[in-house]
Amino acid sequence: MGLLIEFGGLPGTGKSTLARRLAERVGAVWLRIDEIEGALRRNGLTPAQTGVTAYSVAHDLASSHLRRGMTVIADAVNPVAEARAGWRDLAAAVDARHVVIETSCADPAERRRRIAARGRSASGFDGVYQPRTDDRLTVDTGRPVEQCHADIARRLGLTPGSPVLPGCQEIHGMRR
């Protein structure tokens, strides 16, 4: 059975920072909506066309990996119930475990600083972020990154120092 880890939250709240490090630790496939949207724009789609299309592409890629029992990290704002339902429904359709991690940054000035430090637009997101009501781990990234990672590791059942998620398969004799 695969594992889908859905990261959501406003731009500048640390989703990609946390997702990247987790992907490196556990050998997961890391799908970033921002990167998919960028590729779509480079190929002629307008920003208005890329949002739903990028999520659709990410769902197809995630499905393929999850069906093979892999761990997939979906890194996206996921601002509305429909976007979140898409990940939930995908996990159910491929019989994958689904874990939701919502990032937040309680300090608005810090969030703006993070976005400005990128030297580019944070994402194509400029809408309303609907509050979540689903089962999730909320991580305030205003705290030290090590504390954030420890919270995520506990939620996922990772033991200290272990790069392998509980229930994940060995692939080709190598631990992921």
Summarize the structure.
This protein is of the alpha/beta class.
Would you mind describing this structure in some detail?
The protein has 176 residues and is an alpha/beta fold. The chain has one domain (3-156): Rossmann fold (3-Layer(aba) Sandwich), CATH 3.40.50. It contains six helices and five strands; from the N terminus they run βαβααβαβαβα. A five-stranded parallel sheet has the order 2-3-1-4-5, sandwiched between helices. Strand 4 (97-104), helix 5 and strand 5 (137-140) form a beta-alpha-beta unit. Helix 3 packs parallel to helix 4. It is globular. The model is unreliable at 167-176 (pLDDT under 50).
